[in-house]
Structure formats: C-alpha cells, structure tokens
Task: structure prediction
Amino acid sequence: MLLTVAVFLPAVVAAALVAMPRLTGPTANRLWVGASLAELVLVGWMWWRFDQGSGAGGVTDGLAFEADVRWIPTVDAGYHVGVDGLSLPLLALTAVLFLAVGIWSLRQTDRPRLHAAAFLFLETACLGTFAALDLILFFVFFDLTIVAMYFVIAGWGHGNARRSALKFFLYTFVGSLALLVGFIGLFLGGETRTFDMVALAQDPPLADSPVAGGLVLLAIGIGLAIKTPVFPFHTWLPDAHTDAPAAGSAILAGILLKLGTYGFIRIAMPILPEAWQRWAMVVVVVGVVSVLWGALVALAQTDVKRMIAYTSVNHMGYVLLGLGAAGLAADADPQARSIAITGAVYQMVAHGLLTGALFLLTGVLWSRGRTYALDRWGGLARPAPVFAALFAVSAFGALGLPGFASFIAEFQIFTGALQAAPVATVVAVLGILITAGLFLSAIQRLLAGPTVIPQDDDPTESLQPAPAEQRVPDGGTTTLARPGIAVGMPDLRRSELVAIAPLLVLAVVLGLLPRLLLEVIEPAAVVVAGLVAR
Amino acid sequence: MSAAAGVLITLISTPAAVGAALLVGGRRADRLASLVAVVTAVLGLVGATVVLAQRPEASLPFLGLVDGGDLRFAVDGLSAVLVGLVATMSFLVTCFAVADLPHDAARARFFGFFLLFVAAMLATVTAVTLPALLIGWEVMGATSYALIGYRWQDAGKLTAGTRAFLTTRAGDLGLYVAAGAALAGTGGLVLADLPTSDGGWQHVAAAGILVAALGKSAQLPFSAWLSGAMQGPSAVSALLHSATMVAAGGYLLLRVQPLLEATGWAAAAAAWIGALTALVLGAIAVAQRDLKQLLAASTAAQIGFVVLAAGVGAVAGGSAQLLAHAAVKAGLFVAAGAWLTSLGTKQLVGLRGAARRHRGVGAAATVAALALGGIPPLSLWASKEEVLAGVDGAALRVVGFAASALSAVYAARMLTVLLAPPTGAEPLDDEEHGTRRVPVAVSTIAIVLAVFAAGLGALALPPVADSLSAVLLSQEGSAPALSELLLGGLLALVAFGATLVVIRTRPAVLPVLERSALGSWAGLGHLLSARPALSLARALERVDDQVIDRVVMGTATAVRSGAAQLAGADGRVVDGAVRGVAGAFRRAGALARRPQTGLLHQYYVQAAAGLGVLLALLLAVR
Result:
C-alpha cells in the first residue's frame, strides 16, 4: 500500500494541477516541489523500513512492500509491485532527481502549471516502471514515460524541439513495441502462462528451446537497447538532449535511460538466464563498442550538451559490459560476477546524479547565452566562480575520479568483468581515459582562458569584445579591473545552486561511504548472479 | 579499532577534510588558509611520529563481497619511511609556500588542493588493499592537475595540468586492470597477495602496476608531462618532485617488488626502464637552459634509479634513494622558487651568479646540487651506490654508471652558472616582476633541506644501511662494499671535474646542446600525443552523423514515402474500384433514364417495338 501511494502520489498532484486552471505559476511550481519532497520522504521511509528477511535477496523472494492485485485475469497480468535491492536505489534516485529538477524549475514562467503536471506525471511513470513486477504493468509505465517526455520536449524545448521530440517518441516507441513482442514471447513460452516477473524468474520459460529463447531475448534486447541507449541505437539521444529543456534533459539522462538498463537486470537476466549466458559475449561487445564509441564521438563534439549526451552512451556501455560479463558463468566465479552486477547497478545511480547535475549546469549556459557551443563560451571561472566550481566537480565526478560514486561503479565493473572478458575489459578501460580527456578539455574551453560570453541580440557575432582595462577612480589611484569581465554571465542563482549542489554532495557521499548503497545492492546482485548462472 | 589505528586514519583524513573545507570556503577562507595549512602540517608531523612508533593497521568498510574490498591502511617498514618523508616534506614545503605565494593569491584554493594532495600521497603509501591504493593514487593525479593549473588565468598553465593528468591517468589504467587481475587471480584485492596469484593473472597484474608506476614516476615513455608540470607554483614543484607524485611510482614498485620478481620479466623490465630513463633524462637535463626544466629532467633521471632498485631487488637502496632525492630536490626547488620570486627568472642565463646574490639560499642550493651530482660524502652518492651494488649484469651496470656520471655533469653545469660572479647584465624579470629579496623563512627552509640532503647519505653507509634494510625487509640488505662506494664517488668527481673543464675551455658546447633534440626533451611530448585520438573521434562523429543516424532517419523517410505510395495506391486502386462501381451504376442509371422522354408517340413506338420483340421471341421459342 505504501509503495502504491508512493508511485501514484505525483500523478494525483498532476491531475489536481490540470484540474485547477486558475492556479498561479509560482503556486504550481511550489506544489511540485512539495509533492516531490513528500515523495522523497516516502521513499526515504521505505529505505529506512526496507527489510527483506534473512537470506532473501530480492528478485524471486524477499520483495518488500509487495502488493499483488488481479487486473487482467485472462492472461494472468496483475498489478504486482514490490521493492528489492535492484529497484530501491533507482526509486530513491528518481525521487531525488525529480526534487532537484522541481527546485530548478521554481522560476519556470512558461505555462508552469502544465509543466509541473507533465513532470509529476512522468515521475509516477518512472516510479511505476521501477516498482513493477508484472511485464504488462512494466510495459504500460514504460510507455507512459515516453509519452510524458514527448510532451516535455515538444512543449518546453528549444531549437528544433518538435522534430527532436518526434524522433525521440517514434524511435523509443518502436523499441517498446519490440519489448512488447518479447514479453508476449515470454508469456507464450512459459508453462504457467503468466506475465508475472517473479513467477517467470522462478521458473524461467523457454529454458530448453535455444532458438525461441534467443529470439525473445533479441526482441527484448533491442527494445531495451534503444531505450538505454547503446550503439548503434543511440542517435535519438543527442538530438533529444540538445533540444530538450535542461530539466527534461536531466530526467531523460538521469532516469529514463536507466529504464533500459534496469530492464536488462530485472527482466532479461533472471527470466532468460540460458539465452543470456549464450549471448553474453554479444552483450559484452555491444557494451565495449558503446563505451568507446560514446567516448570518442563525445570527444569530437563542439556543443557541450551533445558532448554530455554522448558520454551517457559511454557510461551505459559500462553497465552493459558488467551485465554481459556477469552472464559468462563458465569463465568467472560467482563472486566476480556479483561484483560486476553490483557495479552496474551502482553506475545507474552514479550516472543519474552526475549527469543530472551536468545537464542542469548546461541549462545555466542556455539561460544566460542561448547557446551550447563550446567556442562561444570561455573563461567562465572569472564571472561565475560557483558555476565553474560545480561544473569542474561534476566533470571530475563524471570521469570517474575516486571519491565520487562513479568510481565505485566503474571500479567494480572493471574488476568484476576482467576475469570473464579480459580483452573486452582492457579495451573498455581506455574509455575512462578518453572521458577524462574530453571533460578536461571542456573545462579548459569553458572555464579557463580569456572570458568569452555570447551576446544575446546577435547570435552570429560570437565574441563580445572584452571591456579593456577599466579605469575606476579609487582614492586618487587607478585600479586595474581584470579585463574580460562581461556582464552577461551572472553566477548561479540560489534555486539553481540548491538544485545542483545536493546532487554533487550525494555523488561524493556515495563515493566515500559506499556501504550506504552497497548494503542494499549487494544481496540482490548475488541473487541475480546466481539466477543467471542457472 | 585501536587508538593508533585511529591516529593513522586521522593522519590521512585530516588534511583531506581540511583541504576540502578550504576549497568550499573559497576566497573567504584565504586569510585563514596559511595558518590552517601550517597547523595541519604540524599535526601531520605529530601523527606521523605516532604511527611510526606504533605501526598500526586500520580498516574502513568500503566494498563488500570480497576480501580486500575495504579501505585498509597499515604502516610497515617501507610505509614508515615514506610516511615520515611525506610528513616532513609537506611541512617544510607548506612553510615555503606560505612565504613564497603572492599576498593576493587565492590561498584557500592553493592550500586546499595542496592538503588533498598530501592526504592522497599518505593514503597511497600506507594502502594495503587495491581500492585504498587506487583512491590515493588517482586523487593525487587529479589534485596535481589542479595545482599545476593553479594560475588558470594564464594561457597554457591549465593545459600543462591537463597533460599531466592525462598522461598519468593513461598509466593509471594499468592499476584498474591490475585490480581485476588480483580479483581473478587471488579472489581478493589485497596488494600483498599478488605474488601468489595463479595462472597468467600474475603477469597481468605485474604489467598493470608497472605501467601505472612508470606513468606516475615520469619514466620513459611517459616522461614529458613532468616538463609541463613546471607551470605550477614553485611550492608545487618542490613537493611534486620530492615526496609525492613521482615518488609514488617508485614507492609502488618497491612495494610490489616480490610480484615483479615472481614474474621474472617484470623485474628485468623495471630495471632496464629505470636505468634507461636515468640515462636519457640525464642527457636531457644537461641540455636544458631553464633551471626548472633541468631539475625536472633530473627528477625523472634520479627516480629512474629507484625504479632500477625495485627491478634488481635493492629495496633498501631504493628507499634511501627516494629519501635522499626528496631532500635534495625539495631544496633545489625551494631555491629555484626563491630566485624566481626574487629575480623574476628561471632561465640559466638570468640566474648567473644567483647563488652569490642571495647567500643563504645559494649555499643551500650549492650543497643540494653537489648532492644531486653524487659527490661524496653527500646523500645521493651513497644511495645511488647502494642501488648500483645490487645490479647484476654488465650491460645494466654500465648504463647505471653512465647515468650516474651524467648526474655529475648536469650538477656541474648548473653550479658553474649559479656560482659564477654576476656581471650585472643578466636578463632578469622575464617571467614575473622580481622582488629582489628572499625572505629569511625561505632561506631557513632551504638550509634545513640542504642539511638533510647532505646528511641522509648516512642511510646508505654500511652500518646504517644494514639496519635500514632490517627495518624495511627484516633481512640483510646488500650494502655496497667500501671499494664500490669509493669507485662510484671517484667517477662522480671525475665527471664533475671534466664538465667544469669543458665548460671553461669550450663554452660553445652548451648552445649546441641546448639547440639539439635533447634541449626540447627529445620529442617525448609527441610520443603520447592526443592527436590520433582526436582525428579518430572526428571520423567516428562523421560516421555517427552520416551513417548511423542517416540509416535511422532513412528508415523513417522510407516509411513515410512508402506510406505515401500506399496512400496513392489506396486512392487509385482501392478507392478507384469503389468509385468505378459507383460510376458504372451512375452511367447505367443515366442510360435507364434515356427512354423516359415523356413523349407519347415515342412510348407507342417503344411499346410496339417491345411487343414485336416479344412476338418474335414467342415464335422462336415455339
């Protein structure tokens, strides 16, 4: 019941917002923050009370806050939700990130009521996907996220927003159709004819028909690969990000991408263990190619938002590497495979926090200068030191520096995967060098050097001539003002700071005290490593 | 956790926490920063004394599921030496920085990163498990980036930091791989278990650690980043070249010496790379015209002896070399920094007679430079001989002695300039506006370091060396015989003297050297260029845009045009059939309407014709 309340609370508030057309903008924005705060409290309470019972790790037993209601009895699809070590971190991430985005949007003036409603509806869809333990329920929530994000991009995006939104919608919708085909395959392949994930994981369907199992995995794999996204299904991502509003980008990268990777670990691995083992090497290769492709293409970008979007492809590649290596049961011991899975789940959380922060920071650039082009900005550490500090911290977090959550994730993925897939892992490790290079070069171009700020009124003229040595009368002497301080880049506003800084603080806390999160993830990872080796 | 273990954790975490607090404080904390940094450094000295006496082991929970996933730190003999070194050097260099930084400098940022840097080194040298090691190791690299790029406003400074971080991180990748190999080979992440790992994993781990250490220590082929690292403030150079960063690589190889030996090839590789670095970078040092560049090249060369020591198993000698070099190099960088602040230049041309202008610093620098040249009875002479005494194999020995002689050559080259009587026509202030004075505090620090530089030679002399070896390894070391010591000293003196003579009689040699490839670091900077990666990146980006995305959009376009064609077909064929039927009926209706003319005579005719037809039909049927 608690879980159901937590899932639907945002949607109820969203409905209320839609139903009250006379609500003022600031009230709507505050209502959103209040609802997100309540949501965070609920999820925090669930974390506090999270108890799986001794020996149970989740996935097939020990699911907390479980609810199971008959829904479509003819196909045994039900409203079955529950929480375990795989979903709880992502539920918490969702609550945190939506709150941050809500605070960020406190100054939203463009149709704020509908804006808040769209995001709150999206929050319910995301929470529902992570909580679902029934394939049909999962599919419904999964599709609703696409719908909600389409409206966010098309309604509040900039540039070529409608086209990008349409591309996003159609591409990921095609993916979700492949997913549905796969789910129907699971339904038909099982002996008990059910859509219930727990039942399917306990008694995996298609265990002794490798061709059918492989085809069903292919359908599910393509569906999730488009959502994740991995090479070569990733090209919707940079367009969607470039034209999405900052808040939408933060959610898109922070939460929506995780729906794909979460699907792999929640559905593909436990329910199709035999097929996953058989095709694990393909998953590993796709992961490694995504790692390198994402990193290298990001390195070549001249637009900071596209660059960050491509690093998401890179970071999700690590997740696939870890999950694929966990399927190579013959080549590695269970301990190593559990560590790889733990790292993959940790990566989802770490990437959500850090990329969320990075996209909000690019939103600062957009709000000041209406451009993301790297060559239109420079030396921002002078006029905007707080922005510069937060950008540098997020960049170092995203490149996997120890002390940040991303290090815990990547370290575990690499150490866990090396035994099973040595060559692939050694190649993938190169990815952290390339991301280091691209983030450092972005820092150098945006923050250091002479200050360059685009002028609002003339988008073709990129350089604002820096005011030369201003002579200020100062007690008879002349003070040499530092050249190049332009007026167009005010530093972070309070709402921006309050939205971004906690994400980074969390990323550091989870990097220094990983037990907080690992205590939850590790038992589930061990269970998944056991299930996939069946 | 025992009290001593608590002290060890505090020793590492205090500078980290204080550093982070200073960074968060930003410019508001500038005024307090110097005081806070000095107090923290003093506390570090106290803490180091305690852990040296107690030798504790401490563990913090970190990763689960695996032995060695925790953050475990311990102080054994080798760590004790390094902890003492780091605490002492960081204290002295902190004092130097307080005196040397300009008044309006962003001190909170400087000391914040500086303290984090020190904490990372302390974590590195006490780490027992791989996660603990990697945290210290990588944070050290990142903070060195921030310190080298401290004056980010000036063009190129941050670039040098970027280069340092990327080069060392390229090496760090080896440590990630080594951690995976440790897990696969030993089932845990404990550093000391590595030599027992099974199968090929032992080799993978050794290779990974070797690469990581070579990167950090600026050994071949990674050396070039050290040249750019000179962009940082002098205090950063003084610490980065003595007790941290470059020292970390040497330390790590000494730490995993049993692993290197167990694999066979890795020990030999380390020995040769170390010896060759000592030789090549020694030659590069001779050809420099910038004092800081000369010192930088000599750092890589001197750490080469440590790497050589790890390769040949002379752990005691390697540790002594690390200690002695740290004191010598910190002293020289303090002197170089003092002159840079005072005279505004670090070019050797401008520094002619610098040692005479400021006598306290000058005397200290002279002693340190003589020690750097391996002149007996100063420290590096003894430690280097101890390392070389452990070398088997004639070829390696020859390379080692040649490199040793080269260090006397560059020391002599430096001293001929510094000690020459100033002409008064030196080009000064080419870097910054000099203050023409050296604070007493700076001279004092330089002199203290020079005393260490002179005295630490005792470490390698037979009676002390044996006990040091006992401390480090709990076994007898291979202290050099007296004859070897004297022979090495003689070699250094001869090389030193010969250099003086050559420079006196043939001064034209120097410009030739400076213009040679050696003067520009022998092109090492191009070796690890990012250019191929960048062009590959651009090519892939084009593929991404013009092939992969084109396929996607092409599919969409194809669906649309297919749909349009279907729509056309729909209109033409399907709807056409419907319309055709309708048209036929309409035409039939029109035809049927024709006879309905309303004219009576025509109806009669029609009736007559009809009756006629019926009659004909009747007749025909009948």
